[in-house]
Prior knowledge:
- It is a single chain.
- The protein is α/β, with parallel strands linked by helices.
- It is globular and about 70 Å long.
- Helix 1 (19-32) packs parallel to helix 5, helix 2 (47-56) packs across helix 3 (75-82) and helix 5 crosses helix 6.
- Strands 2-1-3-4-5 form a 5-stranded parallel β-sheet, sandwiched between helices.
- The protein has helices at residues 19-32, 47-56, 75-82, 101-108, 124-136, 140-173; strands at residues 9-13, 36-40, 64-70, 87-92, 117-118.
- The chain has 6 helices and 5 strands; from the N terminus they run βαβαβαβαβαα.
Amino acid sequence: MAIDQTPEVGIIMGSKSDLPVMQDAVDILTRLGARVAVTIVSAHRTPQRMFDYAQHAAARGLKVIIAGAGGAAHLPGMVASITHLPVIGVPVKSSNSIDGWDSVLSILQMPNGIPVATVALNAAMNAGILAAQILAISDAQLAERLLQYKAELARKVEETAREVEEAAASSRAH
């Protein structure tokens, strides 16, 4: 039996300098068992590459696109204007950014008809989790892995809460 290695999530960014942020999406999706493909697509420097990427994404088997961009951050919105696939935008605080607000607003303020799901500044991990949640609608095994991941998060919080409570009680006793 052949294992399907077709990527489900396309992770794109405007330049290599965005990779340290976008790696969080790659890491969480890989941990959850989703298949990803990563590349650089610049809305401003390679508009034809961006157009081709978005236009053929579904035909290549992609189901969700995560697009990270800094500065003017047109990549997520432009990709969303070309494809019918869900696009998740990650605003990246870049060297030419105005504290990241330019990126946040460029991705967040899309006109009606061209939605981009937008996560917080540099929050590529959340973009990865959101992409996994979208895929999990039709993938029971991925849904189970997401539930396990979320249960692990809850366990860590409970553990930390107990440690803090015990430390506080111990300091009050002395």
